[in-house]
Design goal:
This protein is an alpha/beta fold. The protein has two domains: 155 residues, Aspartate/ornithine carbamoyltransferase (Rossmann fold); 153 residues, Rossmann fold. 36% of the residues lie in helices and 14% in strands. The chain is built from eleven helices and nine strands. Strands 7-6-5-8-9 form a five-stranded parallel β-sheet, covered by helices on one side. It has a four-stranded parallel β-sheet with strand order 2-1-3-4, sandwiched between helices. Helix 1 packs across helix 5, helix 1 packs across helix 10 and helix 5 packs across helix 10. The longest helix is centred in the C-terminal third of the chain and has 20 residues. It is globular. The two termini are 28 Å apart.
């Protein structure tokens, strides 16, 4: 692993498998009466969130605390950022406070990279979502979930087919998943209306389709993306009803999937638009499981970046 986790594209196959295997080992502590390891005791992890978040922020906080790290939650709202403080000055403040790792979510694409390469802080930087660029830990937890269901929880995802449907244009999740799943050997198909596909998507390591119905019968995992209306300043499709009719996953379309196929969503969901409630709550849905797996995967990322004590020793100490 490198000193920072900024992009899923930076991960080699061995890096990704190391994170997934470590997460699988760390997931076992969720079954213990005391869900905690002393691995990162004395380390400080700062959650630096310039955008609202529920799942990602709480997941990183839970991950750091389960590894016994001290956690500082920083929200742009109610801080000096609202008074005009720059990212640089905020970073210098965190460095002065002794941050060992900074988990950053920012509306500007490239903000984590700027933070990691500026020299403002010496600790590790983890990208928790930057603009419409990337969200690497989401891709890791998605790959972990797919591997648990379709590959027996071991090895890579060679030969598996993953279909990602929806607002690809504004989705950092889609970008990170395409890169990581390709690295792990999966075949990815993006499905979206032409207006919701980014320029240059043909250069991505994936297939592209304008029809959701075509790839479903050969799909092992289908991932529905939220329509990000807050990032849209013009009409990208005629209406919500028309979008749901052409690209939504309902019970009829779910029936076209192979029996072993799983349904995924990074959340939050627009029920009734990109995914029907009956599909989201079905036995095939692993959406809640993705949230659970996110804690284990982020524990693994923090553990590997911050060079925690050996896991075997941790288990013996906490036994």
């Amino acid at each position: 692993m490198k000193a920072h986790l900024l992009s899923a594209a930076d991960l080699t196959r061995d890096d990704a498998l190391l994170v997934l295997d470590t997460a699988q080992e760390l997931a076992q502590i969720a079954d213990r009466p005391i869900k905690k390891l002393p691995t990162l005791r004395g380390r400080t992890v700062v959650n630096l969130f310039y955008e609202d978040s529920t799942r990602t922020r709480i997941s990183f906080e839970a991950a750091a605390k389960r590894l016994s790290a001290d956690v500082i939650n920083f929200s742009a709202k109610g801080s000096s950022v609202s008074k005009g403080e720059s990212l640089k000055d905020t970073a210098l403040t965190l460095e002065a406070m002794g941050a060992d790792a900074v988990v950053i979510r920012h509306s500007a694409s490239g903000a984590p990279h700027r933070l990691a390469t500026s020299g403002w802080i010496r600790g590790s930087v983890v990208n928790a979502g930057d603009g419409t660029h990337e969200h690497p830990t989401q891709a890791l937890l998605d790959a972990y979930t797919i591997r648990e269901h379709l590959a027996g929880g071991a090895g890579d995802l060679a030969g598996r087919r993953v279909t990602i449907v929806g607002d690809v244009l504004h989705s950092r999740v889609a970008r990170s998943n395409v890169h990581l799943l390709h690295t792990l050997g999966a075949q990815v198909t993006l499905v979206a209306p032409p207006t919701l596909l980014p320029v240059g998507v043909e250069q991505w390591p994936c297939d592209v389709s304008y029809s959701i119905d075509a790839p479903l019968p050969q799909t092992d995992a289908v991932m529905m993306l939220r329509v990000q209306a807050e990032r849209m300043d013009s009409a990208f499709f005629p209406s919500a009803r028309e979008y749901s009719r052409r690209y939504g996953l309902d019970a009829r379309r779910m029936a076209a999937l192979p029996e072993h196929a799983i349904v995924m969503h990074p959340g939050p969901m627009n029920r009734g638009m990109e995914i029907g409630s009956d599909v989201a709550d079905s036995e095939r849905s692993v959406i809640v499981e993705q949230v659970t797996n996110g804690v284990s995967v982020r524990m693994a990322v923090l553990y590997l970046l911050l060079g925690g004590a050996p896991l075997v020793a941790d288990e013996e100490e906490s036994a």
